[in-house]
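Researcher: We're reviewing a set of sequences before deciding which ones to prioritize for further study. For each one, I'd like a predicted 3D structure that I can look through quickly. This is Mitochondrial cardiolipin hydrolase. If possible, include the structure in token form so it fits the rest of the review sheet.
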Amino acid sequence: MSLKTYSQTLFMVLSFAFFAHATYKYLTKKKKEETREKEIHEVIMFSYGSEEVKRSKYSRCRISENMDRLLHYLNQPVYNLDICMYVWSNQDITNIIMKLHYRGVKIRVIVDADMAFAPGSNIRKLEKNRIPVRWMKSTNLMHHKFCLVDTLSGDPNLTPFVMAGSLNWTNQALWGNYEDCLVTSQKQLVEQFQTEFERLWILFKPIVD
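Model: Here's the predicted structure for Mitochondrial cardiolipin hydrolase, in token form for your review sheet.
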């Protein structure tokens, strides 16, 4: 092999190695960007008569844009869903929670003891389907209204977030009141809600009639 041929071959090998390395770095960076947690920051406002209804894949009925957004987020859990809810009677929300349960999402529910079996409450349906539900018999209300999504997974491809605000999961709150629901993946806020949920989960007891 002549010196010229050797030099050309060496140049081609080095060029290939350079471009291969550059391509690898680019693809690695792109993959990291794609798997990086996507931030979620949204406030969903509910106000009587403020919106026209629309068709939604989350309900058999026509629903408002804000209700559609709420059901969109409730349909996101892949690993776990932890719920603290004072009053719960809306059937669309219950239908989504049951679908998550059947898909294998780990669901835990904390409720207020006085409201758990109030007329229209959907808590008994959850209990009958072996979704863990806890309460505490007390004169103090369990007045929280929040839920946590995928906070226990540890999967970097999932974005843990919390939904919290004044909104109870009732038809009156969703259709007749002025309510708010904050949705955020801000880490410190999610962790504070998670700490409170775990504290109550230990403090409260499995539901009994």
